[in-house]
Design brief:
Length: 401
């Protein structure tokens, strides 16, 4: 198992723990919503009690009106009888009138009494109509109260949905901040790469200068050895050659130590590995930029949906009509569908973000200084120079020397 796979497994376990904590958090929120539902139910019960009291009050008022109507009817009858008796006495006490005049007077009085009885009957009918109107209003109020408390969706559901959207907005803003932090880390890695590139270039130039000086010295020594070769003995030649080889061996060891230091600094032993790392880094940057755009788009969509919900909430509070309640139900269903789609998109982006985070952690562990391709080319040149020096020596088995 590679260390990168181990890191990915550790990160996946960490993500699973985080998801479990999120699930527990959601369960706690569901419990809180249950308590809120109970509170809303209690509030609705109190409103129902208030409405029942109002209905009882209206019934009492109707009963009082009925009692008043009966009293008025009785009072009207007594008034009519008293008035008739008074008029009858007046007519009977008329001394200077004939029987025809008395009959005519009685007819006019009877007509007036009929007119008064009709007017009183009309007033009685009007009062009965008002009573029926009050009874219909009472029934309509009872029906409206029942339908309102049965079919209202309502403010609690809309507030709950707004809370869920706010939670999703906070999660998305958290993902965006994490992506911005990753982008800043990548920028720091790029700056560190540029600095390391300059330092490695200076080191390789110094090694190249030392090698050129060494090559010039060896050429001068060879020329001097060729000039004085004829006058020297074989023993002196061997001693001089051993001295030269020991010096060259020390210089080569120095060059190899410097080369090993360069390898430790770059942390790369193969050019193909470095190229693959740079390609992975480029793909990672592109994916991070795409992820940032996607998060920004989902954030904008959620903000617009929140504004629409706020406006719909205000309109539903101002005009609680039946048609608007049905429209609010359909809109809430559409918003729930949108919410499900947004949750699926968030899950997809979360998986993509976890994969990208794993890749970034792997790159940060494997590439501490993140070498450049030019540095690798200079390292290969240095290896070729060492091979040339080994070939230049008369003994091919340079490792044994």
């Amino acid at each position: 198992m590679e260390p990168g796979d181990a890191l990915v497994n550790e990160e996946s376990e960490a993500k699973l723990l985080e998801l479990q904590s999120n699930i527990q958090h959601l369960e706690n929120k569901l419990r809180l919503t249950g308590t809120e539902k109970k509170a809303d139910a209690e509030e609705s019960h109190t409103i129902m009690k208030k409405n029942d009291l109002e209905i009882k009050r209206l019934k009492l008022e109707v009963h009082e009106l009925e009692v008043r109507l009966e009293r008025c009817q009785k009072f009207d009858r007594s008034v009519i009888s008293k008035e008739f008796q008074k008029q009858f006495r007046d007519t009977m006490n008329l001394p200077a009138k004939s029987a025809k005049d008395v009959l005519r007077h009685l007819d006019t009085e009877a007509l007036e009494l009929q007119r008064k009885s009709k007017s009183l009957q009309h007033e009685l009918e009007l009062k009965e109509r008002t009573l029926r109107h009050y009874e219909e209003q009472q029934k309509e109020m009872i029906f409206n109260c029942d339908t309102y408390f049965e079919n209202e969706p309502t403010e609690f559901h809309s507030l709950q949905y707004i809370r869920e959207l706010e939670n999703e907005y906070q999660k998305i803003s958290k993902y965006i901040t994490e992506s911005e932090i990753a982008e800043n880390v990548l920028m720091q890695m790029k700056n560190q790469l540029e600095k390391n590139h300059l330092s490695n270039a200076y080191m390789l130039q110094a090694v190249q200068r030392e090698y050129d000086l060494l090559q010039e010295e060896t050429e001068l020594k060879q020329a001097a050895g060729d000039a004085t070769q004829q006058g020297e003995t074989e023993q002196k030649k061997e001693v001089r050659f051993l001295e030269e080889t020991s010096e060259q061996e020390a210089e080569m060891l120095d060059m190899k130590t410097k080369f090993e230091k360069i390898k430790e600094v770059t942390g790369v032993s193969d050019i193909q590995e470095a190229e693959s790392r740079f390609l992975e880094q480029k793909v990672l940057e592109e994916k991070l930029s795409d992820l940032k755009k996607l998060f920004a788009k989902t954030l904008f969509d959620l903000k617009t949906e929140k504004k629409q919900l706020d406006s719909k909430k205000e309109s539903s509070i101002r005009y609680p009509e039946r048609d608007e309640l049905s429209l609010a139900k359909t809109r809430l269903e559409e918003q729930e569908q949108r919410k499900e789609r947004s949750v699926l998109e968030l899950e997809k982006t979360g998986t993509l973000y976890t994969a990208l985070e794993a890749r970034v952690a792997k790159l940060m562990e494997s590439i501490e200084t993140n070498p450049n391709t030019t540095v690798l080319e200079m390292i290969t040149k240095l290896e070729e120079i060492i091979r040339k020096v080994e070939n230049f020596l008369p003994y091919r088995n340079f490792r044994e020397i």
